[in-house]
Design a protein that fits this description.
Layout: H1 2-19, E1 23-30, H2 37-47, E2 53-56, H3 58-63, H4 65-73, E3 77-80, H5 93-111, E4 117-118, H6 127-137, E5 140-141, H7 157-167, E6 172-177, H8 180-195, E7 198-200, H9 203-206
This protein binds zinc ion.
Zinc ion binds near residues 30, 81, 85 and 121.
């Protein structure tokens, strides 16, 4: 009887292992890179074998080229969040392209790769703009489906951590920023999600078929 029970336990363990497909989640960080805070985020990601996507501002990338290189060297994705963070909806197409192309140049200087993904500041982008950018620059806009709104109250580090633990889901795209409180929250969130079978991937990896 004891052996039977033992075998049964092995079977159940094996079945649960196979039955649990990995859940993929993409953490994204907007508005950086910033000195110290971005590096703090990189450290938490490293400690948890996590890959993420940094939607950088051209103006900040130019200011912190070393941090940009570090993001790339550590296997994260660098994507475009415009140069100066304007509302793209209010700009003529020629200026929208300038915002994106000048930032692409900074990113490509580090990665040697064409930049495909961008996130419009405030998530503001017209339908015609979206189509034209896809057609002319081959660029795709990336929004999000999980956000603790870390830019406003009551989003302190505990709120951010609780929100992310409760709302994490497969194929989630998490909108965060390069803030100190966000880095602190990640120290709590990433180990917990990892234990629940989440894999932390880049946008590129999430979109792979
Ligand atoms: Zn932003």
């Amino acid at each position: 009887m004891k052996i039977l029970k033992y075998l049964l336990a092995i079977c159940i363990t094996a079945m649960s292992l196979f039955a649990q497909p990995t859940k993929k989640i993409a953490f994204t960080f907007d508005d950086g890179p910033k000195s110290k805070i971005t590096e703090e985020i990189l450290e938490v990601l490293r400690e948890n074998d996590a890959k993420a996507t940094f939607f950088i501002l051209g103006v900040n990338g130019k200011r912190h080229p070393k941090i940009l290189e570090k993001i790339h060297e550590e296997g994260h994705q660098i994507a475009n969040h415009s140069y100066n963070h304007p509302n793209l909806k209010k700009l003529p197409m020629s200026d929208v392209k300038k915002e994106l192309e000048s930032t692409n140049k900074i990113i490509t200087g580090v990665t040697n790769k064409k930049v495909v993904y961008f996130r419009p500041p405030y998530g503001a982008l017209g339908k015609a703009q979206k189509e034209e950018l896809k057609k002319n620059l081959g660029m795709e806009s990336v929004m999000w489906n999980i956000s603790p709104k870390d830019w406003e109250k009551p989003s302190d580090k505990d709120y951010i951590a609780k929100f992310l633990v409760e709302n994490a889901k497969d194929k989630g795209i998490v909108l965060l920023h390069d803030y100190g409180k966000t880095a602190q929250a990640l120290k709590v969130v990433l180990p917990q999600l990892k234990a629940r079978g989440f894999e932390f991937v880049t946008i590129e990896e999430l979109n792979k078929k």
